[in-house]
Amino acid sequence: MTVxxxxxxxxxxxxFLAGILVLVGSLALYxxxxxxxxxxxxxxxxxxxxGIALVVCIAFIDFSFIKRMxxxxxxxAILVLxxxxxxxxxxGVSRWISIGGMNFQPSEPAKLAVIMALxxxxxxxxxxxxxxxxxYLPAFAIIxxxxxxxxxxxxxxxxxxxxxxGLVVVFSAGLPWRYVFGSLAAVLAAVLVLxxxxxxxx
Length: 202
Known about the structure:
The protein is mostly helical. It has helices at about 5-10, 10-30, 40-60, 65-70, 70-85, 105-125, 135-150, 155-170, 175-200, and strands at about 95-100, 100-105.
């Protein structure tokens, strides 16, 4: 792959818009800190620069390699979600892992790992096979395992975002809407029941 093709793969328009948002956000935080880059504006700018650098670096990675490693990324994400239960930090919750003075939230890359793993799974299945609901069960497992681990932290908002994103991919693969809504309703009902039981016990 030539350098020109790689450069064309980079979403420059999105980076430009993201850069404007970062600039506006940094200036707002700078103003809120009474003309100081600490503690918010500087961190915001640094994280944005790291994120943009990651976008550019990912553009140089071959898509076939990302596809081959998608299950590895999912397994790694699940392991880190398990680790956060043991070494996680947070006030009354376990959502972050502190690395070198910076907090890392494993649930964020887990959302990407689920989408990548689902994309690989469905791309490897024959189209006629996806007419049967049975072949969607592995996809639901890919979604529900990290969903349950994030819910355990607890982080209901992020867990529901992961669930919704995963179901969008499943529906895009051909699953009828009635199954999507049925699955979502069942999970939400289970979450409400568990939350009610937790309140009663506590």
